[in-house]
């Protein structure tokens, strides 16, 4: 196994705790992987180079020290960007641009100045701007107002944000919690003395999209039927649009549960089990069941309405074969699309709130909400050993004893061992997220690596 591959699975128990210098070394190791750099920089890697190692160590170490300070008993949180102020346009601003505000004189770059500026530089709206001089090192030039749209890519949402420039960005989200990014893409994070590389965004995996494909297939068939029954010209849709909408909703559900700090368990079952699971069965009991009315299928109906509305508003008799998809959806200014988008995420927040009751929120893979307060049967065989996936597709894994996790995790393991088509998403009170499934002959879990953004 290569040095870089080893570093991706590094844990404190193996190598001791990591600190800023280790994080910088890890980043430079990753920078030797040309394919990784090309993905990170969206193919524009030749236009960006890392700062000198000594400068980067100064920046990360200073941010680390600032993170250990307190602001009226609140943790210090901020975002920081290394980029000269003149590279930002003076006349732009949110929601479609960056608002540059330059101090009348530069400020020293140290942990105390960062501590003083952090309350004014709201984490979700503003970055602290710094530049680097070879002789003096880093200096603070002012503030950069980004607005909040950048969070939609993290929490799930439709609104687009101006892309972060190809510059080094640092997130400080709590004591010893630092993430280093190139633009919008995270290179690595330091949290609890452990370095993580966010390569495991399970939502990008083929297996998860295939497993949750029932909703997309059904909405696609219903959309095609609606298209055939209209005499208006509709644009052709990207067949994956329904899947993209569903994925964003699941991200929102997870982020809301994480923000609640009470944890939760989401169980996704095959659609054909809906009737069986609401009667006596050996798998789980749903304390609060919903009747089989259309309201249980609201997510499906909203997704279909979005697809039909998008196809209709982009229909052009002069371009009948024009295809539209996710980008047209997120960029649409149509009021009906905006209302449907808001409705989708109201449903997501509603589902997340149900997880506050002990037990699982039970949903079919077509996003039909069966109920909440689900209790997984204690009669199911216990699971002694599970596989910890080391890549998004689960092609590489390591065996792990299940005894180190809590009751919620062990219940999810038991269910997935018995129901091989089930998917369980376990959100802990400490905000960690595991996605669990029967995979390659055993119960397997994926850590949904945190982005460094609070709440996800």
Automatic annotation (TrEMBL):
A Pfam family of this chain: DACNV
Alphabetized PROSITE patterns for the sequence: DAC
Domain of life: Bacteria
Domain DAC: 270-450
InterPro entries for the chain: DACNV, DNA_integrity_DisA_N_sf, DNA_integrity_scan_DisA_N
SUPFAM superfamilies: YojJ-like
Name of the protein described by the UniProt record: DAC domain-containing protein
Organism lineage: Bacteria, Pseudomonadati, Thermodesulfobacteriota, Desulfuromonadia, Geobacterales
């Amino acid at each position: 196994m290569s040095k870089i591959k080893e570093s991706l699975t590094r844990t404190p128990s193996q190598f001791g705790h990591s600190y800023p210098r280790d994080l910088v070394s890890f980043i430079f190791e990753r920078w030797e992987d040309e394919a990784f750099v090309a993905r990170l920089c969206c193919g524009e890697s030749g236009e960006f180079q890392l700062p000198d190692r000594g400068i980067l160590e100064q920046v990360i170490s200073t941010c680390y020290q600032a993170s250990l300070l307190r602001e009226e008993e609140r943790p210090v949180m901020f975002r920081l960007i290394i980029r000269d102020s003149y590279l930002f346009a003076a006349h732009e601003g949110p929601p479609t641009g960056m608002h540059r505000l330059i101090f009348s004189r530069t400020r020293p770059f140290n942990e105390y100045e960062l501590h003083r500026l952090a309350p004014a530089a709201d984490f979700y709206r503003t970055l602290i701007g710094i530049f680097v001089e070879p002789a003096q090192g880093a200096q603070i030039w002012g503030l950069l107002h980004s607005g909040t749209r950048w969070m939609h890519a993290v929490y799930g949402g439709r609104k687009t944000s101006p892309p972060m420039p190809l510059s080094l960005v640092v997130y400080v989200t709590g004591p010893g919690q630092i993430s280093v990014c190139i633009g919008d893409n995270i290179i690595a994070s330091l949290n609890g003395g452990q370095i993580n590389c966010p390569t495991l965004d399970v939502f990008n995996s083929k297996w998860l999209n295939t497993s949750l494909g029932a909703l997309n297939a059904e909405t696609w068939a219903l959309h095609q039927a609606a298209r055939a029954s209209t005499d208006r010209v509709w644009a052709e849709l990207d067949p994956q649009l329904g899947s993209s909408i569903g994925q964003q909703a699941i991200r929102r559900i997870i982020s809301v549960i994480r923000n609640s700090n009470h944890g939760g368990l989401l169980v996704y079952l095959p659609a054909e089990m809906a009737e069986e699971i609401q009667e006596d069965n050996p798998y789980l009991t749903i304390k609060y069941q919903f009747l089989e009315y259309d309201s249980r299928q609201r997510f499906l109906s909203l997704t279909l309405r979005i697809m039909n509305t998008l196809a209709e508003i982009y229909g052009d008799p002069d371009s009948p074969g024009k295809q539209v998809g996710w980008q047209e959806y997120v960029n649409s200014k149509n009021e009906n699309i905006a209302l449907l988008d808001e409705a989708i995420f109201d449903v997501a927040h509603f589902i997340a709130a149900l997880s506050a009751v002990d037990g699982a929120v039970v949903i079919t893979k077509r996003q039909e909400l069966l109920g909440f307060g689900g209790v997984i049967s204690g009669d199911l065989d216990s699971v002694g050993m599970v596989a910890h996936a080391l890549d998004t597709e689960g092609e590489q894994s390591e065996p792990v004893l299940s005894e180190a996790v809590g009751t919620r995790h062990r219940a999810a393991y038991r269910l997935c061992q018995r129901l091989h088509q089930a998917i369980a998403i376990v959100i802990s009170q400490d905000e960690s997220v595991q996605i669990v499934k029967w995979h390659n002959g055993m119960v397997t879990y994926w850590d949904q690596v945190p982005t460094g953004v609070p709440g996800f």
